[in-house]
Design a protein that fits this description.
376 residues, alpha+beta, five-stranded antiparallel sheet, 40% helix
């Protein structure tokens, strides 16, 4: 029968207990339905209500009411019911996608020019949480005990659901490993986490987390933090729109943090670069194409400028901390000789490389810091 297919109840079940239909309407829709009956609303326009089927699944039903024409049944209505669950899901999905695109555009615009990165991030995660009914959102910089930056938004109605302490990734190693690999962490139901992750489950349970969606924050494929969506009241089946939101927002945050990092480095190295440029100019040379900073031990501590002109491995100077990794043996020998003389006399040293058209300038900077400038 159609009633079984749409409502989950056989016709006889509905006849035997007339209140069954009313009691299974969604509480909010029940009020709306009863108001329609009280006002004798019978029109050509059907109305949509939510109905809890016998199998406990939520269905959207469209009801068209018409006055009963049978004699002796004045004030009664006949109802024609259609299952519109799939249509409602599609409409809600489209509305959610539209909301997501509008919000993402708004957030992106806010990050084009801002006076405070912290305030801009706070506003962004607040808007996401309110618009998409997320219980809690965390943005944290740092994947260990030394979390350096933290932004938390929590639904004000959820004060009883734990504290604002960020996720301890040392206690959730499986999450940390996924984030370090640049992978999205998706958990709709904690019961579905593998048995061998019981310790992690208990930790998340202790924080009242029922569903979790975490996207890594990355700069140049290096994971430096995470953006997490959490549900604490009940499980949530994260859909494609949720994943699109967390990934796109993470990308926006990545760009903002990358820009802040570049500006921070510029401020920090400006004096170094200027110092090297002035010293070189005094000796009749142009501004250096690349500057390596190194300490009194001869360990390279930084690379400024267009290092691609001189060696092929990006950031190799900083990562390997050795001249021999970058230059051929004859040049390394030359650098060490000039470095020994520089440490003794503290006077700028200019010398040519064995590579044609490349020369060097070596300077004492300050506080046992040195500069190696390359000119082309």
């Amino acid at each position: 029968p159609a009633s079984k297919k749409i409502l989950g109840f056989l016709p006889q079940e509905l006849y035997d207990d007339p209140d069954t239909f009313l009691l299974n309407l969604h509480p909010d829709d029940y009020k709306k339905f009863m108001k329609s009956l009280a006002q004798n609303e019978a029109s050509s326009l059907p109305k949509v209500y939510r109905f809890l089927r016998k199998d406990q699944k939520l269905a959207w039903i469209e009801i068209y009411l018409s006055p009963t024409i049978a004699e002796g049944r004045k004030g009664e209505f006949d109802a024609i019911i259609h299952d519109v669950t799939q249509r409602q899901k599609m409409e809600r999905s489209m509305n959610k996608k539209l909301k997501a695109e509008n919000l993402i555009n708004t957030i992106s615009t806010g990050f084009i020019e801002y006076s405070s990165l912290k305030k801009t991030i706070t506003n962004a995660i607040h808007d996401i949480g309110v618009t998409f009914q997320i219980d809690q959102i965390e943005l944290c910089i740092g994947l260990d005990d030394s979390i350096r930056n933290q932004h938390v938004w929590k639904n004000p109605a959820l004060k009883k659901y734990g504290t604002d302490v960020p996720i301890d990734l040392q206690s959730t190693q499986w999450i940390k490993e996924k984030l370090m690999e640049g992978e999205l962490v998706y958990v709709s139901d904690m019961e579905k986490i593998p048995e061998d992750q019981r310790f992690d489950i208990q930790y998340l349970y202790d924080r009242n987390i029922k569903s979790l969606l975490v996207s890594p924050l990355q700069i140049y494929s290096h994971t430096f933090g995470y953006l997490a969506f959490m549900q604490k009241q009940k499980n949530r089946e994260w859909d494609r729109v949720d994943i699109h939101i967390v990934n796109t927002t993470s990308s926006i945050f990545n760009s903002a943090f990358r820009r802040e990092l570049i500006l921070e480095r510029k401020d920090r190295i400006y004096e170094v670069a200027l110092k090297a440029g002035v010293l070189a100019f005094q000796d009749g040379r142009s501004f250096p194409k690349c500057i390596l900073t190194f300490n009194a031990k001869g360990e390279i501590t930084g690379c400024l400028g267009n290092h691609a002109l001189f060696f092929s491995v990006e950031q190799s100077a900083c990562e390997n901390k050795t001249f021999s990794y970058i230059f051929e043996p004859e040049t390394v020998k030359l650098i060490k000789q000039q470095y020994a003389a520089l440490k003794e006399h503290r006077e700028p040293r200019f010398f040519k490389s064995v590579v044609p058209h490349i020369s060097f300038g070596m300077f004492f900077y300050k506080d046992n810091k040195y500069l190696l400038c390359m000119y082309q």
